[in-house]
Amino acid sequence: MTTIKGASVRCENLQKAFGTVKAVDDVSFDISGGEFITLLGPSGSGKTTTLMMIAGFEVPTGGDILINDTSVATVQPRSRNIGMIFQNYALFPHMSVYQNVAFPLRMRGRDEEETRRRVRVALETVGLTGYDSRFPRQLSGGQQQRVAFARAIVFDAPLLLMDEPLGALDKQLRQKLQIEVKRIQRDLGVTVIYVTHDQEEALVMSDRVILMNEARIAQMGTPSDLYDRPVDSFVASFLGESNMLEGKIEQVSANEGSMMLNGNKMVGQLAGQFSAGDDALIVVRPEKMWFADDENDGRTNRLSGRVIEAIYVGDHHRVVVGLDGREPLIVKHPTQFGQRQVSPGETVELAWHPADTRILRAPVS
Ligand code: ATP
Q: What's the chain's average pLDDT?
């Protein structure tokens, strides 16, 4: 396996309109060479259109794309030297595995000896040594995707674009290939831009995630930036589960703020600028809450409620806790030996740390 210098990619105020539909609206980001970046977001948020513009299959209606600091506005797709694995970019059915993988090298006029050597290395990299003479119809879905991957890396492209490449596979195989694709990407040093609407896949594979919503970037950052420090309620609810509690800001100091909820003072980390009296949302992940037995010493946030349901789901109990005048909260309660059991109807004191509490701007309704 040879190491490649991964390409840097910069999108500057990228726009794409299809008639009156804004598919991509003022999207800017910077990707360093060798990064694994995922474009994540709901259906129709502009992920594929962004990828297609980088590939050169869609022409932007505004803005610019730079690969290795050079604008590719006038560069044809085939001259951009990008490897691609798209869900609808299938293998050539009438060609063997060898011919499929050799195809990009033939297009580039490489000689037979180099072609044979590169195809051998690419097939070895994806774990398909010995499959050269098979035809796509003689391969499983996972093997076909490995061939597509080999074809994308065979010419040492410094940039790979992938659009839901594992979307058609079952969950177990998908998880196995996620780890493999990530390992190969790291070993090769290639830059990857990967489109998915599967948030778990994005968190597992990416160095950074670009979360899109309605043609714009909602947040760009590491998986833990997005999960632990969401900038708004869209991000908090798109990635994982969140409990959200509405209220008004009481006090603000540096990065922390406090709010009163059901007569209790809550302290949390502020996402942005706030002033006393502002409407805000407290966001807490269900796995950060526990059932407290001790007296409140003022160091944790507390709310009392009544257990509505406690459902056993293997690695945790999913406990629904009703609150006075508010939406019920979800608590993921560990199942290990010695943990307190809770039952429907029981009154409980919920606790969680200010460090696990995010205060966001209330969405404009
Ligand atoms: P999905 O996860 O469903 O693939 P996506 O986030 O990749 O969605 P895009 O395919 O980029 O979203 O589409 C963004 C918006 O642009 C959508 O509203 C879509 O209907 C629209 N759109 C995309 N391609 C075209 C086209 N060729 N003509 C008209 N509208 C289009």
A: 92
pTM: 0.89
E strand spans, the chain: 9-18, 21-31, 36-40, 62-67, 70-71, 82-86, 159-163, 191-196, 208-213, 216-221, 243-253, 256-261, 264-270, 279-284, 290-291, 301-312, 316-323, 326-334, 347-352, 358-361
Residue 17's Cα: distance from chain center in Å?
A: 24
- Closest among 316, 325, 283, 317 to 301, alpha carbons compared: 283
Residue 18 near ligand 1, beta carbon < 6 Å: yes
Number of domains in the chain: 2
Task: Pick from 15, 49, 212, 214 the residue to mutate for probing ligand 1's pocket: most ligand atoms within 8 Å of its CB.
Answer: 49
Pair (276, 250) in one structural domain: yes
Tell whether the model's pLDDT for residue 365 goes beyond 70. Answer: no
247 and 221 share a domain?
no
The residue from 209, 233, 257 where one domain ends is 233
In a domain, 13, yes or no: yes
Is residue 27 within 6 Å of ligand 1 at its C-beta? no
Residue 293 neighbours by CB under 8 Å, 6+ apart:
340, 349
Which range marks the domain in which residue 181 is found? 9-233
* DSSP code, position 42: S
Which of the listed residues 233, 261, 283 is the one where a domain comes to its end?
A: 233
